[in-house]
Amino acid sequence: MPRRPMPIASAWYQWAILTFIVGFTILGVLAYLAYSQQPPIPARVVTAGGETVFTHDDIMRGMNVFQRYGIMEYGTVYGHGAYLGPDFTADYLHRSSEFLLARYRNAPAGLAAEERLIAELHQNTYDSSAGTVLWTADRAAAHAAMVTHYQAMFRSPVSHGGAQARWIADPEQVRQLAAFFAWTAWTATANRPGHPYSYTNDWPSEPLAGNHVTADAVTWSVISIIGLLGGTGLVLFFFGRYDWLGWSDERTAVRFRPISEVALAPAQRAVVWFLLVASALFLIQTLCGGLIAHYRAEPSNFFGLDISRVLSYNVARTWHVQLAIFWVSASYLATGIFIVPLIAGRERRGQAALTVLLLVAVAIVVFGSLIGEYAGVNNWLRAPAWYWIGHQGWEYLDLGLLWQILLIVGLFLWVFILVRGLKGTLKEEHHGNMPWLLFYSALAIPVFYAVGLLARPDQGFVLTDYWRFWVVHLWVEDFLELFTTVVVAYMFVLLGMVRYKTAIRVIYLDIILYSIGGVVGTMHHLYFSGTPAAHMALGATFSAMEVIPLVLLTLEAWGFMRSGERSVIGGEHYHRWAVWFLVSVGVWNFFGAGVFGFLINLPVVSYFEIGTNLTANHGHAAMMGVYGMLAAGLLLFCLRYLMRPDKWSDRAAKLSFWSLNIGLAWMAFANLFPVGIVQLHNAVSQGYWHARSLDFILTPWVHALEWARLPGDALFIVGGAIPLFWMCLRAVLYPNPNRRAPETEIPARLLTYEEEAPAR
Fold first, then answer.
1. Cα–Cα distance between 501 and 503 in angstroms, integer?
2. How far apart are CA 29 and CA 205, in angstroms?
3. Which CATH architecture has domain 264-428?
C-alpha cells in the first residue's frame, strides 16, 4: 500500500535533514577539540624545593566532593551553577592573589609587585613529560591559606549566607575541595600553550591577576551583532515578501463540539492523574523557588528561623531546578498520550495500563531522586551510593545516576506508548509527514537526555560540563522546543483551526531555523569553561542566529493564534485560556530566549555577567515563560475534556493565566533584570569576584530589590500555581462521564464541527 505523500514540497524535508546533519557535524568537531585541548590535570603540583602541594587524585576527589554535597547548587565554578554562594574559581583566584600581592610588596626591590604577580600567574609551568606544575613557595603558602579559609567556611558550626552549618565534617575532604578550586583558578590564569591568554580565555575578570576581556571576545561579539541584524533583516524581508507558510490559504471555520459529546478512551482518561501529579510538582517547585529567592533577601534565616538546618539553600535550589524539568515533562508526556488516539483514530487495548505504569515509574523517579538528593547532601550516603542514588552534583543533572537511568527508561517507555498507538498511522504516512514528526520529536527527548550519561565523575570538569550542556541546551532549549511546536501544531489541526499544510510548514520552519543556530549555539555556554577559542567563535556566531527564528516564529505564532481565534464561530470558545497561554509563549520566547538570551550570549557581556542575575533572568523568562506557560496551556487543553463540563471554571483559568504572567514579569523586571544590570556594572568596576559576593547582595538598595520580588512571587504561587492544582484535583474528583471503549473508531472531527468560513 503506497504511503500518503507529503502535502508540501519535499524540499522542506530535505533542508531539515541537511541542516540537522551539518549542525551535529560541527558539534562533533568541537567535541574533538574539547577532548584534545582540555586543560591538563597534573599528576602533582610541586614547589622548587620538591614539596607536593596537591595531586591529581586530590583534584579529582575534590571535584567529587563538590558533586557529593551539591555545592554547584550553592555557588559556581567557571560561572556555572547557583547564584547565592561565590564563584569558587574567582573567589580562590582573588583571595590568593591578594595574599601573594601582600607578600611581594614586602619583598626586596625588583619587579613591581603587581607585575611580578601577573607574570607568575600567567606563566604556564606545566611539564607534560613529568606531569607536574611548578609553583613558588609563596604560591604554595597562598594555597595553604586558602585551605584554612575553606575549612572555616565548610566546617563552620553555624549556618552562614545560606550554607548549612557543618556542611562538610571531614577536613580531608575540604582539603581536596580546595585543591579542585585551586586547579580551576590555575586554568584561569596559566596561558594556553601558543596563546597570550589562559585556558579559560582569561576569565574571570580579575585585574590583580591580569585577567581582562580578550580580543577574541570583543571581535566575535561584533560579528555576532552584525550577523543578527543582517540575518534578521533578510529573513523578515523574504517572509514578508513571500507567503511561504500559506496563511493566505486559511479559510477554516469551526464550532466546538459540546463536551458532553466527546467520549474519551481509557488511556486518555488516565492522563488526568499525570496532570494532577504535574500540577502538584509545579506547586512544590514554586514554593522551593520562593524559598531560594528569600535566601537572597535574608541569607541567614527565614523570618527569624534558621531554616537551613532543615532545608538548606542548595537542597531547595536542587529541587527547584529538578521539579521544573519534571513537571513540564509530565505535562508533555500526558499531552502526547492524550492526542495520539485523536491522530490514529482509535486507541489500542492496553494503552491505559501502560500509561498507569509510566505514571508509577515517573513518580518513583521523581520522589526517589528528591529524597536521594536530600540524603546525599546531608552525607547520609557513602561511596558509591551518593553518586547512584544521592546527589550526582551537576546542575540540571543533580539526580543520582540510578534515577537518571530509570528516567531515560521511562521516557523510552513513553515513546513506545506513542509509537504503539500510532503504528497503523505511521505505516500509511510519508516519513516527513506530521505523525512521523511527532515520533521524531518524542524520540529526541530520551535520546538527548541520555547524553547526560557522558558526564562522569572520573573525567575532568571541562569534559563533564561539555556534555552537561548538551542536556541543558539541546534537550531543554532545542528538542523540547521542537516537541512543543509539533504538539501545538497538531492540536490546532485536530481542532480544525489551522490547515494541515500550514501546520507542517511551521514545524519544518522551526526545525530548519533552530538547526541552523540552536545546535552549534550550544557552545555559548562554554566560552570560558576551558574549551578553546573556536568554541567561542562558533558559539557566539550561531547563538546570534538563534534570535532570528525567535523573531520570526513569534510573528508566525501570532498568525497561528489569530488564525485559531478567528476560525471559531458561535458558541463558547472552550480553549480561550489555553490559547492565551500559547500566545504568552510567543511573547516570552521573544523576550526570555531572544532579547535576554542574546544579551548574555555576547562574549563581551558574558565575560562579566555569567553566573549573575542576568543569567537567572534569561533562565526564568525562557524556561517558565516558554516551557512552563506551554505546559500550563496543554494542561488546560486536556483538562477541558477530562473534567465534567459543569465543574469547569473559566475564572480559575483566567486567574492562573494572569497571575503566572504578571508574577513572572514582576520577577524579571522588578528584581532579576535590574539587579543583574547593577551586578554587571559591579563586575566591570570592582571585579567579578565582588559581584558574586554576599557583600554585593547585601548592598542596601540591592537588598531592597531582593525584597521587592516578594509580591510577584506570592502572586505567582497563590494566584497561578494553586488554581492549576485545584482544577486538576476537580478533574480527578469530577471526571467526564463519557467513555469510549478501546479499539472503537474515533471520528476524525471529534472535537469540533466544521462550518462554512465566514466572509472576510
1. 6
2. 29
3. Up-down Bundle (1.20)
List of residues 6+ apart from 82 with CB closer than 8 A: 72, 73, 74, 75, 76, 313, 314, 317, 395
Neighbours of 569 (CB within 10 A): 15
Peptide bond between residue 645 and the one before it cis (omega within 30 degrees of 0): no
C-alpha dihedral sign at 449, 450, 454, 456 = positive
b/e sequence 456-484, b meaning 16+ C-beta within 10 Å: ebebbbbbbbbbbbbbbbbbbbbbbbbbb
C-alpha dihedral, 132 to 133 to 136 to 140, nearest 10°? -90
> Which amino acid does the sequence have at 537?
A
How many CB atoms are located within 10 Å of the residue 220 CB?
Answer: 25
What kind of fold does domain 44-212 have according to CATH?
A: Cytochrome Bc1 Complex; Chain D, domain 2 (1.10.760)
Enumerate the CATH 1.20.210.10 domain ranges in the chain, comma separated: 264-428
Distance from C-alpha of 520 to C-alpha of 538, rounded to nearest angstrom: 7
Q: Are 516 and 546 in contact (CB under 8 A)?
A: no
For 238-258, b where at least 16 C-beta lie within 10 A, e where not — what string? eeeeeeebbbeebebbbbbbe
The CATH 1.10.760 portion of the chain extends over 44-212
DSSP state of 394: E
Mean pLDDT in order along the chain per 10 residues (760 residues): 84 91 92 94 94 97 96 95 94 97 78 89 95 96 97 88 85 98 97 96 95 94 84 69 53 70 90 95 96 87 77 93 94 93 91 94 95 94 91 93 95 96 92 93 92 88 92 80 83 79 83 79 91 90 70 56 52 77 83 84 93 93 90 93 92 96 96 95 94 91 91 96 96 91 79 55
- Tell me the pTM: 0.92
Residue listed under C-alpha cell 558533586: 67
One-character DSSP codes across 478-522? IIHHHHHHHHHHHHHHHTTSS-HHHHHHHHHHHHHHHHHHTTGGG
Whole-angstrom CA distances from 86 to 79, 97, 163, 390, 689 are 9, 16, 11, 24, 7
